[in-house]
Task: structure prediction
Amino acid sequence: MPEKTLTQFIDEYENFCNEGRKHNIQVEEFSTYMRKNLAKLVDECTDENGILDLCDSRIFFEGAFYEEGKKPEEKINIPEIIISAPIKIIPKKMFFHSKVEKVILPDGLKEIGESAFHHCESLKEINLPDSLEKIGGHAFNDCKSLKEINLPDSLEKISVFAFSYCESLKEINLPDGLKEIGE
Result:
């Protein structure tokens, strides 16, 4: 059982901000705070099996899990992420350069944003839900460990370089309903 739920973690931050505003204390932007406290979030909200459940839609913002300037060996290892929040889009660069290994995406997801999983060299497994319609440019670029990906029949667009430099990915079967592939 995790020490805290993701919702509790985010609520704690919002309460901190509200208290700070009462006393005219400057507080960091939400995204900056979350990035700086990513290790704490992962530590407190990951269960005993190493699974982080992203159940709160407030965590979905550009670059949420990007650890800027860190060497690969310094980055936080997140074995598995389950996204149970009812979201429609994975934001641009959400997991950019992160060390996530497995991702379970929610039903109802429509779009994976540009560079959402770009340079996730440890990513080995990801499910793409039947509701997915668009994969953004560079979405899985440089995911060197990704060996297999099953594109759903609902997919209509794959943007430019979505799967470039995925060295372990040997084959992709394109769905019949695909209307556009980026050059």
User: Anything to note?
Assistant: The first helix runs from residue 6 to 22.
